[in-house]
Specification:
Layout (H helix, E strand, L loop, with lengths): L6 E3 L2 E3 L3 E11 L5 E10 L2 E10 L7 H12 L6 E7 L4 H5 L23 H12 L6 E8 L3 E10 L3 H10 L3 E5 L6 H7 L3 E9 L5 H17 L9 H4 L3 E3 L2 E5 L4 E5 L6 E2 L4 E6 L7 E4 L4 E7 L3 E2 L4 E7 L3 H17 L17
Parallel strand pairs: 5-6, 5-7, 7-10, 8-9, 9-11
Antiparallel strand pairs: 1-2, 3-4, 4-6, 8-10, 8-17, 12-19, 13-15, 13-18, 14-17, 15-16, 17-19
Helix pairs in contact: 1-6, 4-6
The protein binds zinc ion.
Amino acid sequence: MTTPQPFIIAGTSIAPGAQADVAFPITTMATGTTSSLAVRVIHGARPGPAVFVSAAIHGDEIIGTAIIQRLAQALEAGALAGTVLLVPVANIFGFISHSRYLPDRRDLNRSFPGSAGGSLAGQLAHIFYREVVARCQLGIDIHSAAIHRYNLPQIRIMAGNRKLVELAMAFGAPVIIESPLRDGSLRDLAQKHGVEMLLMEAGEALRFDRLSIETGVEGVTRVLAHLGMIEADDGLSAVGIPARANRTTWVRSPRGGVMQATCTSGDPVRKGDVLAMVAGLFGEEAEALVSPVDGIIIGHATLPVVHQGDALFHIAAIDHPERVGARIDSITEAILASEPQGSAQGMLDEDEVV
Ligand SMILES: [Zn+2]
Protein backbone atom coordinates (compact mmCIF):
# COMPACT_ATOMS: atom_id res chain seq x y z
CA MET A 1 0.00 0.00 0.00
CA THR A 2 1.27 3.49 -0.85
CA THR A 3 2.27 5.66 2.08
CA PRO A 4 -0.17 8.54 2.48
CA GLN A 5 1.32 11.88 1.43
CA PRO A 6 0.38 15.38 2.59
CA PHE A 7 -2.02 17.30 0.31
CA ILE A 8 -0.52 20.65 -0.64
CA ILE A 9 -2.90 23.42 -1.67
CA ALA A 10 -2.60 27.23 -1.57
CA GLY A 11 0.81 26.86 0.11
CA THR A 12 -0.72 24.83 2.94
CA SER A 13 0.42 21.28 3.61
CA ILE A 14 -2.36 19.10 5.00
CA ALA A 15 -1.21 15.91 6.71
CA PRO A 16 -3.01 12.61 6.13
CA GLY A 17 -5.96 12.39 8.52
CA ALA A 18 -6.27 16.19 8.85
CA GLN A 19 -8.42 18.90 7.33
CA ALA A 20 -7.94 22.61 6.59
CA ASP A 21 -9.85 25.55 5.20
CA VAL A 22 -8.00 27.48 2.50
CA ALA A 23 -8.95 30.66 0.65
CA PHE A 24 -7.84 31.75 -2.82
CA PRO A 25 -7.80 35.54 -3.33
CA ILE A 26 -9.74 36.32 -6.52
CA THR A 27 -10.00 40.05 -6.89
CA THR A 28 -10.28 43.45 -5.31
CA MET A 29 -13.80 44.86 -5.55
CA ALA A 30 -14.70 48.45 -6.49
CA THR A 31 -14.94 49.30 -2.80
CA GLY A 32 -11.45 47.97 -2.11
CA THR A 33 -12.54 44.85 -0.30
CA THR A 34 -10.89 41.63 -1.33
CA SER A 35 -12.83 38.50 -2.24
CA SER A 36 -11.64 34.93 -2.02
CA LEU A 37 -12.80 31.45 -2.89
CA ALA A 38 -13.17 29.24 0.21
CA VAL A 39 -12.32 25.55 0.01
CA ARG A 40 -12.34 22.93 2.77
CA VAL A 41 -9.92 20.08 2.18
CA ILE A 42 -10.54 16.85 4.09
CA HIS A 43 -7.44 14.75 3.52
CA GLY A 44 -7.98 11.11 4.41
CA ALA A 45 -5.71 9.06 6.60
CA ARG A 46 -5.53 6.45 3.83
CA PRO A 47 -4.76 6.97 0.12
CA GLY A 48 -7.60 7.12 -2.37
CA PRO A 49 -9.14 9.29 -5.07
CA ALA A 50 -9.66 13.05 -4.83
CA VAL A 51 -13.27 14.21 -5.22
CA PHE A 52 -14.67 17.74 -5.16
CA VAL A 53 -18.21 18.79 -4.32
CA SER A 54 -19.13 22.30 -5.46
CA ALA A 55 -22.19 24.51 -5.15
CA ALA A 56 -23.52 27.86 -6.32
CA ILE A 57 -21.53 28.09 -9.54
CA HIS A 58 -24.71 29.98 -10.35
CA GLY A 59 -24.72 32.30 -7.35
CA ASP A 60 -28.42 32.01 -6.48
CA GLU A 61 -28.51 28.19 -6.67
CA ILE A 62 -27.77 27.61 -2.99
CA ILE A 63 -29.19 24.12 -2.35
CA GLY A 64 -25.70 22.68 -2.72
CA THR A 65 -24.37 25.07 -0.08
CA ALA A 66 -26.72 23.46 2.46
CA ILE A 67 -25.72 19.99 1.24
CA ILE A 68 -22.01 20.82 1.62
CA GLN A 69 -22.54 22.25 5.11
CA ARG A 70 -23.95 18.90 6.17
CA LEU A 71 -21.16 16.94 4.47
CA ALA A 72 -18.61 19.16 6.22
CA GLN A 73 -20.08 18.10 9.57
CA ALA A 74 -20.31 14.42 8.66
CA LEU A 75 -17.00 13.65 6.94
CA GLU A 76 -13.99 12.83 9.10
CA ALA A 77 -10.46 12.88 7.73
CA GLY A 78 -9.43 10.06 10.08
CA ALA A 79 -12.02 7.72 8.59
CA LEU A 80 -11.53 8.74 4.96
CA ALA A 81 -9.55 7.13 2.13
CA GLY A 82 -8.60 9.80 -0.39
CA THR A 83 -9.37 13.51 -0.33
CA VAL A 84 -12.60 15.50 -0.45
CA LEU A 85 -12.55 19.18 -1.48
CA LEU A 86 -15.70 21.10 -0.54
CA VAL A 87 -16.55 24.37 -2.30
CA PRO A 88 -19.76 25.66 -0.71
CA VAL A 89 -19.92 28.75 -2.96
CA ALA A 90 -18.12 28.82 -6.31
CA ASN A 91 -19.65 32.07 -7.61
CA ILE A 92 -18.86 34.14 -4.52
CA PHE A 93 -19.99 37.35 -6.25
CA GLY A 94 -23.42 36.14 -7.39
CA PHE A 95 -23.98 34.52 -4.00
CA ILE A 96 -23.85 37.80 -2.09
CA SER A 97 -26.04 39.61 -4.63
CA HIS A 98 -28.51 36.64 -4.90
CA SER A 99 -27.76 36.45 -8.61
CA ARG A 100 -26.98 33.65 -11.03
CA TYR A 101 -24.33 35.85 -12.66
CA LEU A 102 -21.19 37.78 -11.75
CA PRO A 103 -20.96 41.57 -11.43
CA ASP A 104 -19.63 41.65 -15.00
CA ARG A 105 -22.90 39.92 -16.05
CA ARG A 106 -21.10 36.81 -17.13
CA ASP A 107 -22.19 33.25 -16.39
CA LEU A 108 -19.39 31.43 -14.54
CA ASN A 109 -20.51 28.13 -16.02
CA ARG A 110 -19.90 29.47 -19.54
CA SER A 111 -16.52 31.00 -18.64
CA PHE A 112 -14.28 27.94 -18.42
CA PRO A 113 -11.34 27.57 -18.75
CA GLY A 114 -10.87 31.30 -18.05
CA SER A 115 -7.46 32.87 -17.49
CA ALA A 116 -5.46 34.71 -14.85
CA GLY A 117 -5.56 37.94 -16.87
CA GLY A 118 -9.18 37.57 -18.02
CA SER A 119 -12.50 39.03 -16.92
CA LEU A 120 -13.70 38.66 -13.36
CA ALA A 121 -15.58 35.50 -14.38
CA GLY A 122 -12.51 34.28 -16.26
CA GLN A 123 -10.23 34.78 -13.24
CA LEU A 124 -12.62 32.95 -10.93
CA ALA A 125 -13.10 30.10 -13.43
CA HIS A 126 -9.32 29.82 -13.87
CA ILE A 127 -8.56 29.55 -10.13
CA PHE A 128 -11.47 27.21 -9.40
CA TYR A 129 -10.43 24.95 -12.26
CA ARG A 130 -6.70 24.95 -11.57
CA GLU A 131 -6.80 24.64 -7.78
CA VAL A 132 -9.83 22.38 -7.31
CA VAL A 133 -11.15 20.62 -10.41
CA ALA A 134 -7.80 19.70 -11.96
CA ARG A 135 -6.65 18.18 -8.64
CA CYS A 136 -9.51 15.65 -8.64
CA GLN A 137 -10.60 12.53 -10.48
CA LEU A 138 -14.33 13.14 -9.86
CA GLY A 139 -16.49 16.18 -9.21
CA ILE A 140 -20.08 16.55 -8.10
CA ASP A 141 -21.41 20.01 -9.02
CA ILE A 142 -24.75 20.97 -7.46
CA HIS A 143 -27.28 23.28 -9.12
CA SER A 144 -30.93 24.15 -8.63
CA ALA A 145 -33.68 25.44 -10.89
CA ALA A 146 -33.84 29.16 -11.64
CA ILE A 147 -35.87 31.52 -9.47
CA HIS A 148 -39.62 30.65 -9.42
CA ARG A 149 -38.87 27.15 -10.66
CA TYR A 150 -38.38 23.84 -8.92
CA ASN A 151 -36.39 20.80 -10.04
CA LEU A 152 -37.02 17.26 -8.84
CA PRO A 153 -33.67 16.03 -7.46
CA GLN A 154 -31.90 14.50 -10.47
CA ILE A 155 -28.42 13.71 -11.78
CA ARG A 156 -27.29 14.88 -15.20
CA ILE A 157 -24.37 13.19 -16.94
CA MET A 158 -22.88 13.27 -20.37
CA ALA A 159 -24.31 10.62 -22.64
CA GLY A 160 -22.45 7.40 -23.36
CA ASN A 161 -20.08 7.14 -20.36
CA ARG A 162 -20.53 3.86 -18.48
CA LYS A 163 -18.45 4.90 -15.49
CA LEU A 164 -20.66 7.96 -15.01
CA VAL A 165 -23.81 5.86 -15.30
CA GLU A 166 -22.45 3.63 -12.53
CA LEU A 167 -21.69 6.63 -10.29
CA ALA A 168 -25.05 8.24 -11.06
CA MET A 169 -26.73 4.96 -10.11
CA ALA A 170 -24.75 4.98 -6.86
CA PHE A 171 -25.90 8.56 -6.16
CA GLY A 172 -29.44 7.21 -6.33
CA ALA A 173 -31.40 10.39 -7.17
CA PRO A 174 -34.83 9.54 -8.57
CA VAL A 175 -33.93 10.33 -12.20
CA ILE A 176 -30.75 10.32 -14.32
CA ILE A 177 -30.70 12.51 -17.44
CA GLU A 178 -28.04 11.82 -20.05
CA SER A 179 -27.36 14.84 -22.24
CA PRO A 180 -24.66 16.49 -24.38
CA LEU A 181 -22.26 18.95 -22.74
CA ARG A 182 -22.42 22.71 -23.25
CA ASP A 183 -19.34 24.49 -24.63
CA GLY A 184 -17.51 26.52 -21.99
CA SER A 185 -19.21 24.68 -19.15
CA LEU A 186 -17.26 23.21 -16.26
CA ARG A 187 -18.37 19.70 -17.25
CA ASP A 188 -17.16 20.21 -20.81
CA LEU A 189 -13.67 21.32 -19.71
CA ALA A 190 -13.41 18.67 -16.99
CA GLN A 191 -14.36 15.90 -19.39
CA LYS A 192 -11.69 17.03 -21.87
CA HIS A 193 -9.10 16.68 -19.09
CA GLY A 194 -10.29 13.32 -17.82
CA VAL A 195 -12.11 14.55 -14.68
CA GLU A 196 -15.44 12.72 -14.38
CA MET A 197 -18.39 14.86 -13.34
CA LEU A 198 -21.87 14.36 -12.00
CA LEU A 199 -24.17 17.36 -12.08
CA MET A 200 -26.96 17.39 -9.52
CA GLU A 201 -30.04 19.53 -10.09
CA ALA A 202 -32.46 19.95 -7.19
CA GLY A 203 -34.92 22.43 -5.74
CA GLU A 204 -35.40 26.12 -6.39
CA ALA A 205 -33.01 29.09 -6.53
CA LEU A 206 -32.68 31.05 -3.26
CA ARG A 207 -34.60 28.38 -1.31
CA PHE A 208 -33.82 25.33 0.78
CA ASP A 209 -36.06 22.25 0.80
CA ARG A 210 -35.58 19.09 2.71
CA LEU A 211 -36.08 16.60 -0.12
CA SER A 212 -33.34 18.24 -2.20
CA ILE A 213 -30.90 18.63 0.69
CA GLU A 214 -31.28 15.09 2.00
CA THR A 215 -31.20 13.54 -1.47
CA GLY A 216 -27.92 15.42 -2.03
CA VAL A 217 -26.29 14.49 1.29
CA GLU A 218 -27.27 10.84 0.92
CA GLY A 219 -26.29 10.78 -2.75
CA VAL A 220 -22.77 12.17 -2.23
CA THR A 221 -22.31 9.84 0.75
CA ARG A 222 -23.32 6.82 -1.35
CA VAL A 223 -20.93 7.82 -4.14
CA LEU A 224 -18.03 8.11 -1.65
CA ALA A 225 -18.99 4.70 -0.24
CA HIS A 226 -19.20 3.24 -3.73
CA LEU A 227 -15.65 4.51 -4.41
CA GLY A 228 -14.46 2.90 -1.17
CA MET A 229 -13.57 6.29 0.39
CA ILE A 230 -15.80 5.86 3.43
CA GLU A 231 -16.98 2.79 5.30
CA ALA A 232 -20.67 2.70 4.56
CA ASP A 233 -23.14 0.63 2.68
CA ASP A 234 -23.66 2.33 -0.66
CA GLY A 235 -27.33 1.63 -0.01
CA LEU A 236 -28.16 0.79 -3.58
CA SER A 237 -30.53 -2.00 -2.61
CA ALA A 238 -32.55 0.41 -0.47
CA VAL A 239 -32.95 3.20 -3.03
CA GLY A 240 -33.69 1.00 -6.01
CA ILE A 241 -32.72 1.79 -9.56
CA PRO A 242 -33.09 5.40 -10.75
CA ALA A 243 -35.03 6.02 -13.96
CA ARG A 244 -32.87 6.95 -16.95
CA ALA A 245 -33.85 9.36 -19.72
CA ASN A 246 -32.03 10.93 -22.63
CA ARG A 247 -34.87 13.08 -23.89
CA THR A 248 -36.61 15.88 -22.03
CA THR A 249 -39.18 18.35 -23.21
CA TRP A 250 -40.51 21.71 -21.98
CA VAL A 251 -44.23 22.42 -22.04
CA ARG A 252 -44.99 26.10 -22.62
CA SER A 253 -48.06 28.14 -21.78
CA PRO A 254 -50.53 28.41 -24.69
CA ARG A 255 -51.67 31.84 -23.45
CA GLY A 256 -50.87 34.55 -20.93
CA GLY A 257 -52.81 34.55 -17.67
CA VAL A 258 -52.96 32.77 -14.36
CA MET A 259 -51.98 29.11 -14.00
CA GLN A 260 -53.67 26.50 -11.86
CA ALA A 261 -51.41 23.47 -11.78
CA THR A 262 -52.83 19.99 -11.39
CA CYS A 263 -49.46 18.21 -11.50
CA THR A 264 -46.10 18.74 -9.85
CA SER A 265 -42.51 17.52 -10.05
CA GLY A 266 -42.19 13.79 -9.47
CA ASP A 267 -45.62 13.02 -10.92
CA PRO A 268 -45.87 10.39 -13.65
CA VAL A 269 -47.79 11.59 -16.72
CA ARG A 270 -49.11 10.06 -19.91
CA LYS A 271 -49.27 11.77 -23.29
CA GLY A 272 -52.39 13.97 -23.30
CA ASP A 273 -52.68 14.30 -19.49
CA VAL A 274 -53.64 17.79 -18.29
CA LEU A 275 -50.77 19.40 -16.35
CA ALA A 276 -52.37 22.78 -15.63
CA MET A 277 -55.05 25.20 -16.76
CA VAL A 278 -54.19 28.77 -17.73
CA ALA A 279 -57.07 31.24 -17.68
CA GLY A 280 -57.59 34.99 -18.07
CA LEU A 281 -57.77 37.43 -15.17
CA PHE A 282 -61.46 36.62 -14.52
CA GLY A 283 -60.83 32.89 -14.87
CA GLU A 284 -62.28 32.95 -18.39
CA GLU A 285 -61.21 31.01 -21.47
CA ALA A 286 -59.11 28.50 -19.60
CA GLU A 287 -56.75 26.55 -21.82
CA ALA A 288 -55.20 23.24 -20.86
CA LEU A 289 -51.48 22.44 -20.88
CA VAL A 290 -51.11 18.80 -21.82
CA SER A 291 -48.14 16.49 -21.68
CA PRO A 292 -46.75 15.70 -25.15
CA VAL A 293 -45.07 12.49 -23.91
CA ASP A 294 -45.22 9.64 -21.40
CA GLY A 295 -42.79 10.52 -18.62
CA ILE A 296 -41.98 12.03 -15.25
CA ILE A 297 -42.21 15.73 -14.41
CA ILE A 298 -38.65 16.74 -13.48
CA GLY A 299 -39.26 20.49 -13.06
CA HIS A 300 -42.07 22.99 -12.87
CA ALA A 301 -42.72 26.74 -12.59
CA THR A 302 -43.78 27.80 -9.08
CA LEU A 303 -45.03 31.23 -10.16
CA PRO A 304 -48.67 31.13 -11.35
CA VAL A 305 -48.46 34.45 -13.25
CA VAL A 306 -47.53 33.39 -16.79
CA HIS A 307 -47.00 34.84 -20.23
CA GLN A 308 -47.74 33.01 -23.43
CA GLY A 309 -44.72 30.82 -24.23
CA ASP A 310 -43.40 30.59 -20.66
CA ALA A 311 -41.89 27.17 -19.94
CA LEU A 312 -44.06 25.72 -17.16
CA PHE A 313 -43.24 22.00 -16.98
CA HIS A 314 -40.11 20.01 -17.80
CA ILE A 315 -40.80 16.36 -18.55
CA ALA A 316 -38.35 13.49 -18.97
CA ALA A 317 -39.62 10.92 -21.45
CA ILE A 318 -39.69 7.58 -19.61
CA ASP A 319 -41.33 4.30 -20.54
CA HIS A 320 -42.96 3.22 -17.30
CA PRO A 321 -43.88 6.52 -15.64
CA GLU A 322 -46.25 5.05 -13.02
CA ARG A 323 -43.62 2.62 -11.74
CA VAL A 324 -41.03 5.41 -11.50
CA GLY A 325 -43.59 7.75 -9.93
CA ALA A 326 -44.37 5.21 -7.20
CA ARG A 327 -40.66 4.88 -6.43
CA ILE A 328 -40.27 8.67 -6.21
CA ASP A 329 -43.22 8.76 -3.79
CA SER A 330 -41.58 6.16 -1.57
CA ILE A 331 -38.22 8.03 -1.57
CA THR A 332 -40.01 11.28 -0.72
CA GLU A 333 -42.04 9.67 2.07
CA ALA A 334 -38.97 7.99 3.57
CA ILE A 335 -37.03 11.26 3.62
CA LEU A 336 -39.87 13.35 4.99
CA ALA A 337 -40.72 10.75 7.64
CA SER A 338 -37.14 10.68 8.93
CA GLU A 339 -35.88 13.04 11.62
CA PRO A 340 -34.20 16.15 10.25
CA GLN A 341 -30.47 15.86 10.90
CA GLY A 342 -28.29 18.15 12.94
CA SER A 343 -28.12 21.90 12.87
CA ALA A 344 -29.74 22.26 9.47
CA GLN A 345 -33.15 21.61 11.03
CA GLY A 346 -33.88 25.28 11.64
CA MET A 347 -33.09 26.21 8.04
CA LEU A 348 -35.66 23.96 6.47
CA ASP A 349 -39.12 24.98 5.48
CA GLU A 350 -41.28 21.98 4.75
CA ASP A 351 -43.82 24.13 3.01
CA GLU A 352 -41.30 24.43 0.20
CA VAL A 353 -41.14 20.69 -0.38
CA VAL A 354 -43.15 20.11 -3.51
ZN1 LIG B 1 -27.13 26.20 -12.42
